[in-house]
Amino acid sequence: QVQLVESGGGLVQAGGSLRLSCAASGRTFSNYAMAWFRQAPGKERESVAVISWSGIITYYADSVKGRFTISRDNAKNTVYLQMNSLKPEDTAVYYCARNTADFTSSTWSKAFYYDYWGQGTQVTVSS
Fold first, then answer.
1. Which of 16, 5, 1, 35 is nearest to 121 (CA)?
2. Cβ neighbours of residue 83 under 8 Å, at least 6 residues apart?
3. Per-residue pLDDT reduced to its tens digit, 94-122
4. CA-to-CA distance for 22 and 113, rounded, in angstroms?
5. Which stretches within 16-105 are classed as H helix?
6. Do the Cβ atoms of 106 and 115 come closer than 8 Å?
7. 3-state DSSP call for residue 85?
8. Residue 22 contacts residue 34 (beta carbons within 8 Å)
9. Positive or negative: CA dihedral 91, 122, 36, 7
10. How many CB atoms lie within 10 A of CB 47?
11. Which residues pair with 39 in a beta bridge?
12. Do the Cβ atoms of 12 and 124 come closer than 8 Å?
């Protein structure tokens, strides 16, 4: 059984920064791509960023490009999301998830390809 535990959320003013962490249990963390999704109240869950098992390949949603950076430390079984220049529209519950298959620039954003999800961490950006 794989467990994903997010942390690092909180309340921040617009223009500020937060760093989210997602700690994974299990010995096979480094074999899988990992991603961040988010869900705002009353909205569908949307993809934010993905990172390959090696950390070499990353993709981002257009809404966060240039502001967010996904990274990982396989020695620590942890994936990160550095969020800068935060906007009120970034307010959401952020989830990390494990990818089950090779991804492409067009498939990485589909929740269907993720098998394990964390419980989420709340990010609130005030204007």
1. 5
2. 17, 18, 19, 20, 64, 67, 68, 90, 123
3. 999 999 888 888 889 999 999 999 999 99
4. 18
5. none
6. no
7. coil
8. yes
9. positive
10. 20
11. 93
12. yes
pLDDT tens-place string over residues 51-110: 999 999 999 999 999 999 999 999 999 999 999 999 999 999 999 999 988 888 888 999
By DSSP bridging, strand 58-60 and strand 10-13 are unpaired
Token readout for 65 is 């490009």
Give the up-direction half-sphere exposure of residue 113: CA atoms within 13 A in the CB hemisphere: 20
Q: Is the dihedral of CA 33, 80, 49, 117 positive or negative?
A: positive
Separation between Cα atoms, residue 46 and residue 84, nearest integer Å: 19
Token pair belonging to 66: 């240039």
The identity of residue 37, as a single letter, is F
